Amino acid sequence: MSDLRVGWGFDAHRFGGSPPLLLGGVVASDEVGVEATSDGDVAVHAIIDAILGASALGDLGSFFPSSDSRWHHADSFDLLAIALGEALSAGWSVDFVDVTVICQDVRIAPIREEMRSQISRGLGLGTESVSVKATTTDRLGFIGEGDGLAATATVTVVRTP
Length: 161
Description:
Strand 4 (92-102), helix 4 and strand 5 form a beta-alpha-beta unit. The chain is globular. The chain is of the alpha+beta class. The strands form 2 sheets. Strands 1-6-4-5 form a 4-stranded mixed sheet. The protein has a two-stranded antiparallel sheet with strand order 2-3. It has one domain: CATH 3.30.1330.50. The model has no long low-confidence stretch (mean pLDDT 96). The chain contains 5 helices and 6 strands; from the N terminus they run E-E-E-H-H-H-E-H-E-H-E.
């Protein structure tokens, strides 16, 4: 069995909830929010999904189903802490994270370093182990039409001694 695994995660939300819009624990917009069970932080949700996948533990929905009222209005970093604990219990620790936010009009560049800092703190990693990128869909699809946003994340985990 390999001592290194890679996981990939994805999350998307429709705009429409109450502001603010959180991305990686940072307020990305005071003018728009998302429809979500928790705080709707797609960047953190994608990271959680990737951690659970790399650790072969399932996915975001199996751990935090929207039908369970415990997760209503939950802080995504609290969910991240739970997922990290599960991965550690399964013998895995996060080594590196690469997250991409996909959004048409919300700008990531002004908050990129703060996102890296918040995510690295939540994961117990140095900022050199967290990459944050952004892209648009060039006005294609629900994201390009301004109806919502998404994020993907790739995570490497290593076997804990």
